[in-house]
Design goal:
Order of helices and strands: EEEHHEHEHHEEEHHHHHEHEHH
Number of strands: 10
Helix content: 40-55%
CATH superfamily of the largest domain: ATPase, nucleotide binding domain
CATH topology of the largest domain: Nucleotidyltransferase, domain 5
Strand order of the largest sheet: 3-2-1-4-5
CATH architecture of the largest domain: 2-Layer Sandwich
Bound molecules: 5'-O-[(R)-(carboxyoxy)(hydroxy)phosphoryl]adenosine, zinc ion
Mean pLDDT: 96
Largest sheet: 5 strands, mixed
Radius of gyration: 20 Å
Distance between the termini: 30 Å
């Protein structure tokens, strides 16, 4: 019997240089080098800085992944790389490295969609995806509700954010509260000591005409402004800002809307599995509320461990491996770095 494909995946769409190696749907290595500390003082990812960091980290991270997996590059059966969406210059580094590996090793190359990779990664932890699966992807760059009949070639967008991504809202509110970048994990931590019912912040696109027009879309920009105004008003009055209560109440507003719409999307489409992914899926309150709402609606929730929720190479290797197993054609060697690749385009 032919062995299961050994696939290396490269991820460079934002500030993580990720190199993952899988055999079939077994994870062998997940090496990540992050440039997040270099961006912290700017309060956001600086594209040029990220691209340079990818260049410096690429070869050492590939070496580290091969060592961790106990393999040589010549053992590989295929290469997968994030072609988009993401920062153009950052993507280019990964795509160029993947082409070089594919050409020099004489093995097929799969240029894949970053969001499809976020969905795929859970096969490494919880086995094959039920078809269809509903996926809620929430990170610093995206907030999407996806109906996924087949992750290798059929991903449908039901809704997305019309302004800020969920993680972006966490990062901006953290800044208002004087917490470090990236703010999501800090808000998560601080919120544990606060009262999530202390302040009622707005739930975007959940009522009236907005809801009708944007049933499965999200909006976090109004919420962010509302938190900033609330904090400013306290400061102007010379009162102490109850940071833990603000963090908990803000976080509750975000995860309430995320989970409410995700469960509704499952029910509206007759889907009984909800997958969470992306950096914000590491949020403890999101995981808890999603779990309890899924339980009440008889929906099975799946969520990978936090290290596989944030950007990594294993997720790209996972999608590449599913493509090989599904008999998908490889990409052309002149594939582009597709910075605004639409979510429905799983492969370029
Ligand atoms: O998926 P990811 O690593 O990179 C992007 O593709 O953006 O997500 C990073 C985002 C950041 O906005 C970060 O603040 C957020 O995920 N994040 C969290 C938590 N951990 C990371 N947000 C809320 N709670 C967390 N525990
Ligand atoms: Zn991501």
């Amino acid at each position: 019997m032919k062995h299961e494909p050994l696939v290396l995946g490269l991820e460079t769409s934002c500030d993580e240089t990720g190199v993952g190696i899988v055999r079939g749907i077994t994870l062998l290595a997940d090496a990540v080098a992050s440039s997040v500390d270099e961006h912290a003082r700017f309060g956001g990812v600086v594209p040029e800085v990220a691209s340079r960091a990818h260049l410096q980290a690429m070869l050492p991270t590939i070496d580290r992944a091969c060592q961790e997996a106990g393999i040589e590059l010549r053992d590989l059966d295929a290469i997968a790389v994030t072609a988009g969406p993401g920062l153009a210059g950052a993507l280019l580094v990964g795509v160029a490295a993947a082409k070089a590996l594919s050409l020099s090793l004489g093995i097929p190359l799969y240029g894949v969609n970053h969001l499809g990779a976020h969905v795929s990664v859970d096969v490494l932890e919880h086995g094959p995806l039920p078809e269809p699966t509903m996926a809620l992807l929430v990170s610093g760059g995206h907030s999407n509700l996806l109906l996924v009949p087949d992750v290798t070639h059929d991903i449908r967008s039901l809704g997305s954010t019309i302004d800020d991504a969920a993680g972006e809202a966490f990062d901006k509110v953290a800044r208002v509260l004087g917490l470090p970048f990236p703010g999501g994990p800090h808000i998560d931590r601080v919120a544990k000591g606060g009262n999530r019912k202390a302040i009622t912040f707005p739930r975007g696109l959940t009522a009236g005409k907005d809801m009708e027009r944007h049933e499965f879309d999200y909006s976090f920009s109004g919420l962010k402004t509302s938190v900033a105004r609330w904090v400013q008003a306290k400061e102007a009055a010379g009162e102490a800002v109850p940071v833990a209560d603000v963090a908990a109440s803000f976080q509750e507003a975000v995860v309430d809307v995320l989970t409410r719409k995700a469960v509704k999307a499952c029910q509206a489409n007759g889907v009984d599995h909800l997958l969470l992914g992306g950096g914000v899926a590491a949020n403890s309150r999101l995981r808890a509320l999603a779990q309890s709402r899924c339980d009440s609606a008889s929906i099975t929730m799946r969520v990978p461990r936090p290290a596989l929720c944030t950007d990594n190479g294993a997720m790209v290797a996972a999608l590449g491996s599913l493509m090989v197993a599904g008999g998908r054609e490889p990409s052309a060697l002149n594939l582009p770095a597709a910075s605004s690749q639409p979510v429905e385009l799983v492969q370029v």
